[in-house]
Amino acid sequence: MEDSPRPAAFILNRDDVSTSWPAERMLLDFLRQERRLTGTKEGCREGECGACTVLLGKLEGESLRYRPVNSCLLPMGEVAGAHVVTIEGLNGEGLTPVQQALVDAGAVQCGFCTPGIVVALTGYFVNADRWEAQEAVSSLDGNLCRCTGYLSMKRAVSSLCSALQPPWKNSRDVSPAMEARLEGLVQCGLLPGYFLDIPRRLTLLREQGEHVLPFDPRESTPVAGGTDFFLQHRADDGRPKLFFLSSREDLRGIHIHDGVCRIGAATTVEEMVRSEVLAAILPHVKEHLGLFGTTAIRARATVGGNLVNASPAADVAIILLALGATVGLAEGKKRRQVALKDFFKGYKLLDKAPDEWVEWVQFPLPSRNAAFHFEKVSRRPRGDVAGVNSAILLEVDGGVIRHAHLSVGGVAPVPFYLAETVKFLEGSELTLEVVSEAAAVAQGEISPISDVRGSADYKRLLLRQLVLAHFLTLYPSLAGKGCLHGAP
Amino acid sequence: MSKKEIYAVKGLSVPETPASAQEPKPWKQTQMVGKGIPRVDAYERVSGTAVYPSDVLLPDMIYGAVLRCPHPHAQVKKVDVEAASKMPGVRAVITGDTPEARVEWTYSKEARSSLFDPHCRFEGEPVAAVAAETPYQAEDALRAIRVEYDVLPFVVDERDALKENAPSVHGAGNVLKTEKYERGQVDRGFREADVVLEENYRTECQLHTPMELHGCVAKWDGDRLTLWESTQGVYAVQAEVAEVLKLPLSKVRVVGHYMGGGFGSKLKAGKYTVIAALLAKKSARPVKLFLTREETYLAVGNRPPNNMRLKAGVKKDGTLTALDFSCTGTGGAYPSGGTSLVDWLVRDLYKCPNVRTECTDIAIHTGPARPFRAPGHPQGAWVLEQMMDALAEAIKMDPVELRLKNIPNFSQGKEGNPPYSSTGLKQCLEEGAKAFQWKVARSKALAPGETGRIKRGVGMASCLWVVGGGWPPSTVILKLFPDGSLNLNMGASDIGTGTKTVMALVAAEELGIPLGKIEIEHADTGTTQYATPSGGSKTVPTEAPTVRAAAISVKQQLLEMASKELKLDAASLVFQEGSIAPAKDPSKSVKITDLSELKKRGVVVGIGYRGPNPENKAIIPFAAQFCEVEVNTKTGEVKILRFVSTNDSGRVMDRLTYDSQVIGGITMGIGLAMTEYRVLDRDQTGRMLNRNWHDYKLPTALDVPLEMTSLPVDREDSQANSVGAKGLGEPVTIPTAPAIANAVYNATGIRITETPISPERLCRLLAEKRKEG
Fold it and tell me: Same structural domain for residues B486 and B407?
């Protein structure tokens, strides 16, 4: 084993914990093996089933946020200074309203997924300002159940949402202060009373500990999230020493400055989904990025991680490509920028030196008459890697396409920028014939392979359909102007 | 919503009880049974305090791991464990060369192999195993084992396995067996038909993937072995382990109180069970051995893929005249039912005098199949129910109507044509169609002129399950304590279906004891009574009558005690809520808790045995399902909007567990229809490509329709057994996939004859149709 023990101090449920378990090992194992907390279940070790869901509470500035995460993908190095809540940490004298609602609705069969469901649902109520059944059900997108068929869970969620009102309901538009929120949650019985003291204890921990270790890329591999990285590096030996960029507050956040929107590399996908800044630029960002992973994965996956991981079908990369994004790289004190479309050199090959890391990604704000759209088709509509995904940015003026970006994933070794198609589109009139021809030009640019997500032919067909779907969605009136039903 | 309300149901009156010489009849009125009462062990399950076998932690316990063959076909030449044995924390290493590990392994009756068979016939066959202080050390040690393989030619697709020069799995041709069935005169039947249709179909291989992984914890105390195993049947595991390790049954104790799902894949012991026991013996330490998710995809069973063909004849009035069905399938490398029961619905579901079936089971180099929820039936339903839909269209008849015209009242497929003890298929179809508003929904979907990207459609399908009556043996013991509380002791596992809850309800119903006073001991060969594995929709109809028999035995003994106490003939006494009284003078009652003999004895033990089923009766559950879908004709994506399922499984024992089974079964069927299929690298490596939930997709909460309705045809089957219930767990998943396929056809005019109904397949078919059109 090459892991280097680094003592980590954190709060686990009610207890202060200090451990020298290697930073690269997963919290799930620590909980089950070391702490004998077996209510957190192991189902897959790949963040797919949610049976190991825990809440990860971290101080963010002055505020305390709890996020549901998969403990099978959460390295010990990332729990330092945090409050980890397992099912045991929610149990009190009786059942919590979440547990009771699941019991009453018959939402428990073999019960193996249930603790994870209880934690994930509790996480929803802890996080959400308003409690809505549909949103609460969506928060279970990463919790598989092989027995119940979920309907009883949905019933439990409905009854909870109608029986419980957030105690802070009066202040509608403003998120309640952390203390008020915790008090309300304890008052509802959703959280045990000891939570009230957690902010103080975490602040103390922050003051005492050095949770952000110095980063030397020559000695360790930077990881930002790692929801895919840890699937590829599962074995204990041979795993590189890791540095966890997620703990770098300075690499997080979404800001607009000088007509440019910059996203810190350690910003999570969930933060993008919830970002008001981004929503003002891309009104459908919640819907589009809601197709990325699951709630628990989005809470951990980062923009920088998604780009560096360089999956050919990476949703975030595809969206950013169509926004004409640029990547900011750092190496020691050196800084440089590279256009995202030039960043990807080949399958998992990047224009990035081994010691360089991504600090941010930015894109120019689209003009007022620009329209953006994202399409994704996968075998399962949600929480699946795209078979093909595609994004487009179009500026049309007087019936002519003035400016365009078009990207596609899953049809080339890299997240692909359709440069030839863009060249063809720019300056062309916006007609069905042009769209059809653009789809044909795109065919010449791509090189799909057959894999578990579909055959090469299918991906070609899908790209064509998605190109058509882009235009039909953004310019529905096109549909009446000619036949779009011609087969490829 | 308070806990008290749930657990302390009070004021029960004791229902009708048979006199001592009478056979018990199903209750006419019930107090507890049939209501929606939450699980008796709900607290443990929602609080995470339930200890599943994979949660068991014993003092001094170490961790086992298995090295598996990475090739679909190879001969192990040499296993070098020297380096691994010396690694830190390693306490035991075993291979095929270890004398104690040279034991026989039976995949099925016809297929004998050995624990570490050097001839690996599928990817995932165990080659060696280690036990170490931590799971990491065990994993590291596996990686240090050097294996020399002779990699051999493979065939991993049954469609390739019959070709000339196909690699052979067992040294001859790859056909394992062909089963034929025939009744009537099929050719004449086709001549009598007004319409004859013929079509090819295929269903892909589906994996069980229960939430809890397969495995166990093994511990030796001298020569006694205790196993905590995630299993559907502790006695089945006991029998198999005792046989393989040549131990007396009494020396093998198997415990499985909680278990995280099985769906048929945990009916027996696995090689891992024996390996854990051997590692524990060798290391003299308790060993925990649970498979990784990836291993479970390779080595613990599946629903076989099937290639099927059906030719069907029908008259204009809807009379079926002939069915001619053939299929091939594969249970993998060892005979394990690659085609079993695939033809059963064709033989038995609809009235048809002339039926011929032929099923050919083929060997290939993949992991052996295991029974999977309603073995064979979803595959057969995929064919028959789509064909019924097509026949109905051809003769311009409503598909529900066509089915209603062909309902038999006896089993045509079973030996001697026994009548059904009850059949609610008609009610399932009629009540389901009504609840779904079938006619309205269908006319809307059929309305011409619908254009645009999104199209809607409705579809339905029905089914039966081959056996739903349960059967002997089973023994249950009830212990009534002097304070009026009760201990229920049964060997059956509660695999999540609610067995414990249903059995507690039966005891509560019969004895008038509140649920809160009933405690259950179960699924432990050391301390609980014999039961066969929980599976095959037989647990309720097997165990519930047994529990009732034990409860009646308790009652009889209490009556005898009261007879002495009251100095009255036992026959003149009746059982009331918590007391016994002369039938003619209820005021002279004696409380059960006041019975002096009960106090003296400390306990009354009632033993119940499962009696035989009625002779010459087929006890069969039936179901029908209706669904509505939305198809995106540009991308081929299908959204399922709603489902209605009507089930005839006799009496509803508990509405909550019942509905949960129904909805869960539909969801599993949605998986088979839409996203679940094994992908093998057929040409180059023969390996499985989607061996995890990342690449093998189950439906999530967002993939199932919000509107799902379970509508029981709640009628006791008075002939089946003393509680009137039939099995439920299997029929709920059988008609789902063809119901969806029929709805997609209704929406698009495209007949999807192969699973899955993926965007890929549908997108291609839609494009082809546009080209033609």
Answer: no
Residue B196, domain member (yes or no): no
Give me B298's structure tokens: 């390779």
User: How far does B161 lie from chain A, in Å, by closest CA?
Assistant: 22
Are B40 and B65 found together in one domain?
A: no
Q: Out of A112, A152, A452, whose CB is closest to B689?
A: A452
Point out the residue among A33, A104, A451 whose CB comes nearest to the CB of B38.
Answer: A104
Which of B211, B296, B499, B702 should we substitute to test contact with A (largest number of A Cβ atoms within 10 Å)? B211
Q: Are residues B493 and B394 in the same domain?
A: no
The full set of domains in chain A, from first to last, is 8-208 (3.10.20.30), 221-364 (3.30.465.10), 370-481 (3.30.390.50)
Instruction: Tell me which residue has tokens 């259950």.
Output: B520
CB-based contact (8 Å) between B701 and chain A?
A: yes
Interface pTM, i.e. ipTM: 0.96
Question: Are B565 and B673 within one domain?
Answer: no
- Nearest chain A Cα to B48, which residue? A39
Query: Phi-psi category of B400—alpha, beta or left, where left has phi over 0 and alpha has psi -120 to 50?
Result: alpha
Query: Rg (Cα) of chain B, in Å, rounded?
Result: 28
How far apart CA B149 and CA B132 sit, in angstroms, is 25
Task: Answer whether B763 touches A (CB < 8 Å).
Answer: yes
- Please report how the helices B736-748 and B377-394 are oriented relative to each other, as an axis angle in degrees rounded to 10: 30
Which residues of chain B lie closer than 8 angstroms to A469, CB-CB? 634-635
Query: Which one of B249, B284, B299 terminates a domain?
Result: B299
Query: What sign for the dihedral angle of Cα B85, B90, B96, B101?
Result: positive
Q: How many domains does chain B have?
A: 3
Give the number of other CB atoms < 10 A from CB of residue B271.
22
Q: How many residues in chain A?
A: 488
∠ CA A107-A113-A114 to the nearest 5 degrees? 50
Please, how many CA atoms are within 13 Å of residue B660, restricted to the half-sphere of its CB?
32
Q: Are B703 and A461 within 8 A, CB to CB? A: no
Look up the CATH number of the domain holding residue B415.
Answer: 3.30.365.10
The answer to the question of residue B190 being in a domain is: no
Cβ neighbours of residue A446 under 8 Å, at least 6 residues apart?
A: A408, A411, A412, A416, A418, A459, A460, A463
Q: Which of B667, B701, B706 lies at the smallest CB-CB distance from A140?
A: B701
Q: What residue of A is the nearest CA neighbor of B53?
A: A38
For B763, which of A38, A106, A465 is closest by C-beta distance?
A465
Q: How far is A345 from chain B (nearest CA, A)?
A: 26
Tell me the residue range of the domain where B754 lies. 306-468+616-772
* Cα–chain center distance at A432: 35
How far is the C-alpha of B769 from the C-alpha of B773, rounded, in Å? 6
Give the pLDDT of residue B111.
76
Summarised one tens digit per residue, pLDDT across range A398-415 is 899 999 999 999 999 999
Closest CA to B697 of A386, A52, A157, A287: A386
A113:B211 CB<8 A: yes
From chain A, pick out residues whose CB is under 8 angstroms from the CB of B756: 379
Inform me whether the C-beta atom of residue A44 falls under 8 Å from chain B C-beta atoms: yes
Q: Rounded to a whole number, what is the distance in Å from the CA of A473 to chain B's nearest CA?
A: 11
Question: Quick one: what percent of chain A has pLDDT higher than 70?
Answer: 92
Mutate to test the interface with B, among A93, A160, A228, A379 (most CBs of B within 10 A): A379
CA distance A301 to A303: 7
Residue B247 domain flag: yes
Question: Per residue in B311-336, pLDDT tens?
Answer: 999 999 999 999 999 999 999 999 99
CA distances from B309 to B188, B199, B324, B753 (A): 19, 6, 8, 10
As a whole number, the mean pLDDT across chain A is: 90
